[in-house]
Amino acid sequence: MAFQRETEALGQVSGRLGWDQETMMPRGAAEQRSEEMAAMETVLHARRTDPRVGEWLAAIDGAALDAAGQAQLRLIRRSYERAVKVPARLSVELARVTSRSQGIWAQARADGDFAAFAPTLAEVVSLKREEGAALAAEGDVYDAMLQDYEPGATADQLDAMFGALRPRLVALREAVLAQEKPAALTGEFDDAVQMKLTRKIAETFGYDMTRGRVDKAVHPFSSGSGQDVRITTRTNPADPFNCIYSTIHEVGHGSYEQNIDAAYLLTPLGNGVSMGVHESQSRIYENQLGRSHAFTSFLFGEMKQAFGEMNLADAEAFYRAVNRVDGGFIRTESDEVQYNLHILLRYDLERALIGRSLEVADLEAAWNERFEKDFGYAVDKPSNGVLQDVHWSLGLFGYFPTYTLGNVYAGCLHEALRADVPDLDARLAEGDTSPATTWLREKLQVFGGLREPRATIEHATGAAPSEEPLLAYLEAKFGDIYGL
C-alpha cells in the first residue's frame, strides 16, 4: 500500500499536467508538454508493472483482510494484470501522441477543419487498436477497452440496454417536437457575471472551494481527487445556461471525488468506482436536481439578481426555457430527451473504428450521415459534428457509452432519493440542495471504489440497475411540460 500510495500520487501529478494543458498552458508549449506527459507515463508504467507488485499480490492472504482491504487488493490486481499486458513502448507513445493530439484537435475545431486533425486521429486510433488487442488477448477488443471506464460491462449488455432505450426516446422526442416550443431565453449575458454566478451555484451544490476551483476550458471537465479536485466550465454571452449547467454537471463529478472517505486518500478506493457511476452523479446534479421545477424557481431569482430583468416573465416560463427541447448539434448542450441519442451515435461509430469496419478517413462522412438519419437535419460544420468532443483526441475509446449508463444509474438513484426525501422539492425551491447531496454522499459517494459499479448502485438504491426509472422520469417530466 505504501508503494501504491506513491503511484497514486504520481498519477495525480500527471492529471494536474493535463488540467494545466486545457486551462492555462501557453499554446506554444504543446510539444514540450507531450514530452513531459510521456516522461510521466514512463515512470507510471514502470511502477504499475513492477515485478514486485506481482510478488506482493501472490504473497497476500486475501481472506485475512477486511472488506476495504479486499477491495484494495482487487483493484490493485486488476490494474497490474492490465498494465503488464501493454508494452511500455506503447503506453509511453500513447501518452505522447494523445497529449499532442489534444492541441491539434482544439485548433482544428476552432478552424472547422477535420482534415487537419484526421492524420493525428488516425495515429491515435492505430495505437488504441494495438493497445486494445494487447488487453483483450483473444477476446473482444472493445469489451477490453470498456474495462478502463466501466469494469464488468460488455458491449452485449450495453446493446441490450440501449436497444430498450432507443424506441421510447425516439417516440418521446417525436411527440415533444410536434408541440409548440416554449419561449427560449434571449439576451446578452456578461461572461464575468456568468462566472461569478456559476461559482456561487457550485457552492450551492456543495462543492468545496477550499479543495477545488472553477476555471474555463474549451470542453468542460473535472480533474483530481481527494484534497485537490478542479472543475472547468465555459461561457457564451448568448447562452448562460451553457455555463451554469456545465458547472453543475462538473460539480457532480467533483463532489463525488471530494466526498470519498478520507481514509481512502491516494489509494485505489480513493477515486470514483467507474465513469458510469461518476456520470450518475454529474447527471443527477445537473438534471433531476438542477433542471427540476423546484430548483429552477430558485435559480430564476438568482439570474434576475445577477443579470436584471430577462425576456422570461416568471419562474414557470424560466423552467420551461431551461427544459426546452429543440434541434441542435452539441451533445453537452442537448436537452434530456435527446442527449442519449447523441451518445448512441458516438458509441456505434467508435465501435466501428476499433473494429476496423470504419476508418478515420471516412469518419466525418459516417458521422454526418448517421446524424441526419437520427436527428432529421444535416450537420452544418465540423465543430458542430465530428470535431465537437475532445474524447477521441485523448484516446478515450470506450468512454462514451458510460454517459448513457450514467443517465440510467441517475434515474435509479433519483427514484430512491425521492422515496427517502419526500420534502425534497420544498428544500430545492429555497436553494437548499443539502437533502439530496447528503443522501448521495452517504448512500454512494463516501464509498469510492469499495464496490463494483453495478453493486454500488444496487447498494444505494436497494435494486438492480434498470433503464425503466430513467424512461419513466423523462416521459412524466416532458409529458407535463409539453402537455402530452
From TrEMBL:
One of its GO terms (biological process) is proteolysis. Binds 1 zinc ion per subunit. It holds the Pfam family Peptidase_M32. SUPFAM superfamilies: Metalloproteases ('zincins'), catalytic domain (SSF55486). It comes from the Bacteria. Zn(2+) binds at H249, H253, E279. GO terms for molecular function: metal ion binding; metallocarboxypeptidase activity. InterPro entries: Peptidase_M32_Taq. Its EC number is 3.4.17.19. Belongs to the peptidase M32 family. This is Metal-dependent carboxypeptidase. It comes from Pelagovum pacificum.
